[in-house]
Specification:
By secondary structure, the protein is an alpha/beta fold. The protein is built from ten helices and 14 strands. A hairpin with a 4-residue loop joins β12 and β13.
């Protein structure tokens, strides 16, 4: 099965700035693909080129094995992070208006139910909360039954319950065979939803793979944090290499957590008050870019 999306040697120059520097990647059908990176990495420019909003300086983009045509817009849905809507229209009227732009729109009731808009369907757009607006933006991205969906920070402004409902919708879309491309500032979200991830920095892709592959390759060792008061012996007497973080905490890096705990217990060290940290996507991100996502 060929990829639903192929990006080949993509470049984009703005005056003297090279925002995208010859990146290539492909996306398999039916997965959620995450494009992550610090601010200014080039991911938004990359998405806008793929979405056919910007023209590339060079490079090729193939959708379903062929160059994009005008029909591409019928097959994709885009949830923009910021979109201006007509204030005097209601949620229901907005969805109906956008549905008329496509040849085979989804049923209005189907979209309203899927995106949990029933209680606000008659409310005007200028009276929606941030989270409600995000749900409407998602509904607009799905109104044309897209095969490929772009989600630009879709959980921004959502409370925890709404965020979980969004994740449920994404998983449902994948189960229906849709393909999603996601940008997010939540590493938890990326790790939970994404089957594959590409991390961008300074216009290039610096790492790619599944979340588990990236964590294994770049996440480092597990860490056991132990109060210094629990350890009466000198650090060099411990069976594991330990480092003093501050006046009252030791950190011990181990490949296997249970082996580290067993070694400490054999030395008679009190394990009360310890904490354990296993590598995650945020560790990978910081290791590769040296930046936090919201920097």
């Amino acid at each position: 099965m060929h990829p639903i999306l192929e990006v080949i040697h993509l470049r984009k120059h703005f005056s003297t700035v090279e925002a995208v520097r010859g990146i290539s990647f492909s996306v398999r059908p039916g997965i959620c693909f995450g494009l992550l990176g610090p601010n200014g990495a080039g991911k938004t420019t990359t998405l806008e080129i793929i979405e056919d909003i910007l023209k590339p300086t060079s490079g090729e983009i193939f959708f379903d094995g062929s160059p994009r045509t005008n029909a591409f817009r019928e097959d994709v849905g885009i949830q923009f992070q910021h979109t201006s809507l007509l204030n005097f229209l209601s949620v229901e009227e907005t969805l109906a208006t956008f549905a008329r732009l496509y040849h085979r729109p989804a049923g209005l009731e189907e979209i309203i139910e899927r995106c949990d808009l029933s209680e606000i369907r008659k409310r005007r757009n200028d009276r929606l909360s941030g989270g409600q607006t995000q749900r409407l933006m998602l509904a607009l991205a799905l109104v044309n039954r897209p095969r490929l969906v772009f989600l630009d920070e879709p959980s921004t402004g959502l409370d925890p319950q709404s965020r979980r409902n969004l994740w449920k919708i994404v998983l449902e879309l994948k189960s229906e065979g849709r393909t999603l491309i996601l940008t997010t500032h939540s590493m938890e979200e990326a790790e939970y939803l994404c089957d594959e991830i590409a991390i961008m920095d300074q216009g290039t892709i610096i790492a790619s793979g599944s979340p588990a592959e990236l964590i294994k390759r770049h996440g480092g060792l597990n860490s056991i944090l132990l109060p210094c008061a629990n350890c009466s012996c000198p650090l060099e007497a411990l069976p594991l290499a330990a480092e003093k973080l501050d006046d009252d905490t030791l950190v011990i890096h181990v490949e296997e957590i249970h082996q580290g705990l067993n070694a400490l217990m054999e030395c008679g060290i009190d394990l009360q008050g310890i904490s354990i940290h296993s590598p995650n996507l945020e560790d990978v991100f910081l290791h590769l870019t040296g930046k936090r996502l919201r920097e």
